Amino acid sequence: MLSKDTESLQPHVREFVERAITFTTCPQCDGTRLSTAALSSKIKGASIADACAMEIRDLAGWVRGLGEPSVAPLLAKLRQTLDSFTEIGLGYLSLDRPSGTLSGGEAQRVKMIRHLGSALTDITYVFDEPTTGLHPHDIAQMNGLLLRLRDKGNTVLVVEHEPEVIAVADHVVDLGPGAGAAGGAVCFEGTVAGLRASGTLTGRHLGDRAALKEKVRTPSGALQIRSATTHNLRNVDVDIPLGVLVVVTGVAGSGKSSLIHGSIPARADVVSVGQSPIRGSRRSNPATYTGLLDPIRSAFAKANGVKPALFSANSEGACPACNGAGVVYTDLAIMASVAAACEDCEGKRFDASVLEYKLGGRDISEVLAMPVAGAIEFFGAGEARTPAAHAILGRLADVGLGYLTLGQPLTTLSGGERQRLKLATYMGQKGGIYVLDEPTTGLHLADVEQLLGLLDRLVDSGKSVIVIEHHQAVMAHADWIIDLGPGAGHDGGRIVFQGTPADLVAARSTLTGEHLAAYVGSNGSTPTRLQRASRGHKT
């Protein structure tokens, strides 16, 4: 049990391990994991552990000071790699940082490093939302790197929602017109200017800008953080207002997550929705993850006078041929295994006898094939009316997942969809303080408007909402902003601004203030869709 990483253990086992066992830094190697012989080998008084503990931008300067001709080619390659980290906005990391502690955006950019120095050309690179976790200031750097890869003679395909990235594209492909079953078609293909004039959902929202709030809410109290020193924080003292929408922002690596996730005092009423991946097998789906399947199974059992276990593909109702997986895997030994739909259940996962039981004229497989939006109507009235299921489905629709089917495998969901699925699940808990870590990840421009409405409803219902976010529309919609910086790593870790969004724009004293001021503009033009939404008008 102890030979495994505690994060990989099942929840009840991990809970026991954390309660019964104390983990401490090894006194022999001081946590470096290296032998005494390795640590005794030094260059300019620094061991390899000392070098790996430096911030990468500092390490790059140290390497430049090494003038050993016998390893000149090696040093040149090393300098190039370290410089790539700095260029991509990761100069604040250290090489000994555990990869599991990196945010989604940091991990994505680390993977990009290996390609930036490549001499290969005529390569096709595919980047899936490379701006995840990036401050508007950092997105400009990212755009430069993408254009450099293109200019070397490569093809660069980017899956992205950020208008700043779309703006530098040579060619845009817009898919839709909707999501899920309502999408899957190419709505537009051409230039950015053509997209703006196309009338597609993306084209209509490309120029959206949120207005600053005309009137902010009054706090009902404060959450105190005192002498916070987690990671790069420098004895930070801050009072986070409660009963309002608070946005914590700052450049990547400035200490936002350290302040919120690492420094908020332990409280029973804090519900934290982080970026950690959803744990679940290919048998897991939105219905099982959110607990929706339990009231559905109970409703089927009550309507047909049988046991609820029959309506679980992981229990008594499973198809015997595929054990409820819906697919049969064939191991070919010399190559990857092949999956084929089960011939007995035709991928429905249930035994044929179970499918004879109906609720509202549908069997369990037909219900799991329904999208959330359709299931809301189905369980909202008539014979299939199930209030418990209807409430969970309503939360899924609130976070913009109305197009997902109830039985869709979790392994097929995008990062943004998984984040919102977690948010929908946590919304059913009784916490008074919600902490959301970049909830706009993976959201289309049109979906941000819906997210802002959801955040408002949470606050208006008496919750306190703290959002770690870079999206300017969310910043403009906040009641209070806490900006960390001024830079990343040892250049950050300080509060550089606290106040309302209007005060931040007026001061323009930080990078965030400058970018937010440019985003909202000050030309008094006609309000856009997002501006009208932020003022309470329907759109």
**CATH hierarchy: architecture of the domain at 221-278 and 413-534:** 3-Layer(aba) Sandwich
CATH superfamily of the domain at 221-278 and 413-534: P-loop containing nucleotide triphosphate hydrolases
Helix content: 25-40%
Number of helices: 22
Label the structural class: alpha/beta
Care to describe what's here?
With 539 residues, the protein is of the alpha/beta class. Among the domains are: 180 residues, Rossmann fold; 125 residues, ABC transporter ATPase  like domain (ABC transporter ATPase like fold). Helix content is 35%, strand content 15%. It contains 22 helices and 16 strands. Strands 10-13-14-9-15-16 form a six-stranded mixed sheet. α4 runs antiparallel to α5 and α20 packs across α21. 35% of the residues are buried. The C terminus is likely disordered.
Which terms would index this structure?
single chain; 539 residues; alpha/beta; Rossmann fold; ABC transporter ATPase like fold; two-stranded antiparallel sheet; 16 strands; globular; disordered C terminus
Topology record:
Elements: H1 11-20, H2 36-40, E1 42-43, E2 46-47, H3 48-53, H4 56-64, H5 72-87, H6 104-116, E3 124-128, H7 136-151, E4 155-159, H8 163-166, E5 172-176, E6 185-190, H9 192-196, H10 201-205, E7 221-228, E8 236-242, E9 245-250, H11 256-260, E10 270-273, H12 286-289, H13 293-304, E11 327-330, E12 338-341, H14 364-368, H15 372-378, H16 387-398, H17 415-426, E13 433-437, H18 445-460, E14 464-468, H19 472-477, E15 480-485, E16 494-499, H20 501-507, H21 511-520, H22 529-534
Parallel strand pairs: 3-4, 9-14, 9-15, 10-13, 13-14
Antiparallel strand pairs: 1-2, 5-6, 7-8, 11-12, 15-16
